[in-house]
């Protein structure tokens, strides 16, 4: 007889039976042949088979089965249903039903699992044995199923850890399990590592620490102690450099991520697991993709243009790899490290963006202010992690990206005598930067407004130093002509000769020019443009040029 027919007979027999503790034995005995067959089919006891049949039948009629549905169908005391909570919990553990608490709405609800339903529909016994651990993803899925049950309080933390221990013990022959056992972590930390790995495999690089604690542990003491061990660096996960904190700001929450070491250890070669090669998501820099860079027309003086043109050639095409090979053969560092320095507005940052756009290289922009932290040792750690992130970007992108330290004066200026913890931090950060530059193998640009205050130790670390001075008269004419194409050539020449403006200052004047045009419905005349130039340079008067 198909199992669905036996479930139907049990379900129909329970209608208005006024089930009680006293009548339970008698009704179970009467239905025993069917209940035993159902129990064998699903791997449960006759009593569990009785309630499973009841839930199954109600599920066919209703999308969700509530306690009061069972009470009404059985015509029994509601406390009788509640008293059999242990049977519902057992059915949950066997993955036959799911249970949700709906306090404040209807009542506690139960649902048949898809596996239990399909088994009866196809008359194929439910496979109680779990899928073997063929790869890391099978293990992570099984672990996540258990953690979801922990979240719903189907199982306790102790039961969760015992289930994980049992899986690892039964699957010791699997390569993934062997790699985990080699780490020699406690069972609690193994659960945390598997939790982080599951999130990573599903596209989440960062995991909230509190969310992980609440998902795995059911007591406050376990949550606090585990969190303390991680934060204090006492946990094996931290000591073995398997996880790192990404947000260490006081009272702002903490996020964890797997290190490259952990990813390699658990997932193996990234090329063998293409699904883990997700979009690059930096946390210590800002990614500016070459295809999205909005560059301006760049006008430089002739000497500077030649120097920048050399960098365009060096970083374009496949020239870089060939040059780096030659550097290495000569015993020189492979890195291309460039310092662009000069007055504000001379196009230092724009030059880097232009090079990146023309050579199709992404830019990782460093915000110096965000690196510095008020807590002792944190700034130095952030700087080290920044370079680690860049190396990860180099291996991720097809073309080596550019690491840009914009306005780097605070990092490369002359070191000072230590009189405070802040001075100590600045000097320590400079030492770290010097060490990183010594072995740097990528592309690094630093921009600075300094002219003579560069620390001597950095002079050697920057093989390419390009001074971007204020544009000369001929260059200023090109800038004015490009910004105001409707202006006649004689007016362009007069403006270029009268004011020694940088490109950035001319941009400010163009903003004022456009604003005047919008508000007055007509462009400003040459005299008004001259007044804008005078105000920009703080001359305060236009009498010297006769506008």
Briefly summarize what is shown:
The protein has 547 residues and is α/β, with parallel strands linked by helices. 55% of the residues lie in helices and 8% in strands. Strands 7-9-10-11-8-12 form a six-stranded mixed β-sheet. The protein has a three-stranded antiparallel β-sheet with strand order 1-3-2.
Your description of this structure?
With 547 residues, the protein is α/β, with parallel strands linked by helices. The protein is built from 28 helices and twelve strands. The chain has helices spanning 3-13, 21-30, 32-42, 46-61, 67-74, 78-82, 85-93, 114-122, 136-151, 157-170, 175-183, 187-201, 209-216, 220-231, 236-239, 260-267, 302-315, 319-329, 348-359, 368-371, 378-396, 409-412, 421-438, 456-461, 473-483, 489-498, 503-520, 526-536, and strands spanning 65-66, 97-100, 109-112, 207-208, 243-245, 255-258, 286-288, 336-341, 363-366, 402-405, 443-448, 464-467. It has a six-stranded mixed β-sheet with strand order 7-9-10-11-8-12.
């Amino acid at each position: 007889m198909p199992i669905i027919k036996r479930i139907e007979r049990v379900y129909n027999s329970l209608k208005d039976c006024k089930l009680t503790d006293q009548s339970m034995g008698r009704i179970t005995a009467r239905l025993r042949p069917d209940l035993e067959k159902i129990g064998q089919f699903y791997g449960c006891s006759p009593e569990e088979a009785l309630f499973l049949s009841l839930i199954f039948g109600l599920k066919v009629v209703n999308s969700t089965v509530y306690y009061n549905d069972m009470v009404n169908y059985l015509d029994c005391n509601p406390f009788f249903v509640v008293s059999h909570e242990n049977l519902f919990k057992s059915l949950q553990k066997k993955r036959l039903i799911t249970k949700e608490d709906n306090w404040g709405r209807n009542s506690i609800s139960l649902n048949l699992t898809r596996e239990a339903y399909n088994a009866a529909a196809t008359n194929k016994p439910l496979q109680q044995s779990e899928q073997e651990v063929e790869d890391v993803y099978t293990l992570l899925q099984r672990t996540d199923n258990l953690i979801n049950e922990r979240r719903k309080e189907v199982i306790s933390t102790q039961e969760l850890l015992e289930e994980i221990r049992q899986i690892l013990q039964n699957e010791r022959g699997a390569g993934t399990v062997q790699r985990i056992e080699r780490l020699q972590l406690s069972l609690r930390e193994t659960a945390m590592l598997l939790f982080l790995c599951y999130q990573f495999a599903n596209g989440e690089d960062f995991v909230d620490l509190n969310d992980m604690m609440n998902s795995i542990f059911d007591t406050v003491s376990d949550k606090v102690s585990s969190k303390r061990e991680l934060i204090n660096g006492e946990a094996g996960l931290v000591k073995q450099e398997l996880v790192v904190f990404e947000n260490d700001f006081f009272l702002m929450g903490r996020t964890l991520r797997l290190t490259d070491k952990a990813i390699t250890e658990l997932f193996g070669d990234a090329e063998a697991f293409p699904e883990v090669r997700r979009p690059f998501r930096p946390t210590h820099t800002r990614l500016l993709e070459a295809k999205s860079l909005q560059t301006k027309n760049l006008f430089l003086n002739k000497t500077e243009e030649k120097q920048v043109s050399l960098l365009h050639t060096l970083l374009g095409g496949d020239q870089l790899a060939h040059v780096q090979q030659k550097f290495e053969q000569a015993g020189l560092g492979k890195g291309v490290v460039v310092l662009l320095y000069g007055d504000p507005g001379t196009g230092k940052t724009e030059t880097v963006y232009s090079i990146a756009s023309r050579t199709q290289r992404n830019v990782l922009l460093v915000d110096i202010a965000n690196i510095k932290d008020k807590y002792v040792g944190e700034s130095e750690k952030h700087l080290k992690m920044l370079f680690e992130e860049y190396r990860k970007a180099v291996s991720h992108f097809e073309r080596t990206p550019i690491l840009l330290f914009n306005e780097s004066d605070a990092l490369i200026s002359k070191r000072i005598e230590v009189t405070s913890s802040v001075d100590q931090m600045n000097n320590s950060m400079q030492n770290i930067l010097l060490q990183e530059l010594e072995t740097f193998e990528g592309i690094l640009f630093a921009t600075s407004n300094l002219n003579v205050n560069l620390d001597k130790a950095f002079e050697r670390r920057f093989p390419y130093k390009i001074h971007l001075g204020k544009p000369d008269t001929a260059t200023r004419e090109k800038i004015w002509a490009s910004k105001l194409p409707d202006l006649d050539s004689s007016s362009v020449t007069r403006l270029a000769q009268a004011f020694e403006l940088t490109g950035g200052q001319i941009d400010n004047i163009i903003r004022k020019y456009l604003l005047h045009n919008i508000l007055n419905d007509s462009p400003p005349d040459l005299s008004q443009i001259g007044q804008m130039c005078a105000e920009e340079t703080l001359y305060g008067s236009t009498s010297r040029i006769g506008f």
